[in-house]
Amino acid sequence: MKRRYMRLFGVVALISASYWVSVWLHASDHKSHTAADTSTSIRRTGSWFGAPGAPQPSSAPPPAAVPAGVEGGVEGGDGGGQVLKAYLSNTNTNTNSSVAPDPDPDPAGPGPALLPPVPPTPPGPLHIEFNWTRTMSDVRKESSQNLREGGRYQPPDCTSQHKVAIIIPFRNRQDHLKHWLFYLHPILKRQQLDYGVYVINQHGNGTFNRAKLLNVGYVEALKEYAYDCFVFSDVDLVPMDDRNLYRCHPQPRHMASAMDKFGFKMPYGAFFGGVVALSGEQYLSINGFPNGYWGWGGEDDDMYKRVILRRMSVSRPDTKIGMYKMVRHTRDAQNEANPHNVQKLSQTKADIDNDGINSLRYEVKKIVKDTLYTMIDVDLLGPK
Length: 384
Fold this sequence. Notes:
Blueprint: H1 2-45, H2 47-50, H3 81-93, E1 113-114, H4 136-143, E2 152-153, E3 158-159, E4 163-170, H5 174-190, E5 194-202, H6 210-224, E6 229-233, E7 237-239, E8 253-254, E9 258-259, E10 275-279, H7 280-285, H8 299-309, E11 323-326, H9 339-344, H10 348-351, E12 363-369, E13 374-379
Parallel strand pairs: 1-3, 4-5, 4-6, 5-13, 9-11
Antiparallel strand pairs: 2-5, 6-10, 7-11, 8-10, 12-13
Helix pairs in contact: 4-5
């Protein structure tokens, strides 16, 4: 009898011990999950990516400052090509850059809530009408709310997932810029972007070079902020639908898929002009825009070929969401069609590694910070 009670006591003791071991393991597992969830939460607020030594988001080029002494890609007498090439090589591979993205307003706290990748449903189709009596002062009164100097905007109560530089090639288009700013600032705010507007003005009266101005905009914008998306837009194109999101996608994005100039249709399948969006990684993989297209035509087709050569594809919104209205105008002097540009298109494959952001040369003449935009006046050092 005594042995029977001893065996029963042993079984009860074993069951009790198993129970308490299970409770302890469950508590430990809960604690580890809580720590992991907290870490994920910190990453999503943006604080984690800004911490010293933390890796940067893979979709964005690691932020870095342009080396001291480099002004517009020109240093000393070497023309700047090798200097800028080395700089871009470093920023493309060094994930522990000494210059981190702008920190949260309160580094000690968790930071503002992170916005969803896609904003709440925007209004949709927009009525676009170009009022020629509207002045730039009128635009400032209506569109400058919550803007910082230089045309910078960040959602006031939350953190956007999209750091977007809007880059506009420019010369003698003040009226067009007025219309663009009037419509685009409200659109970009509704889309809850962390954005800046950069107007890159070609200094002097030499032959216009749209593509090279866009390369300049990319380099100059990154000197100011850790943008991870770049929208390259002509100043005379205004979107007609709020759902056409000014942000980057897994593939290079041709946003102006239905311009009124072409009857709201694609003029041809490989058309890549007007407004395009590329992430920093996509832009660098194609070596940016070609610098050799002086005068009108060809550079957008060259960009399309570069995208395909790098085994990417072009994404587009449908023709309802991708509708754009153009401010009508005549072609500027010194921007006539250049027949040599058509011949140059046949050399894209041979030129892609040598003609682009790694061979960019220019000189900054002046930078003006307006409430609505940053104007950068540059000498492209091209043919007179």
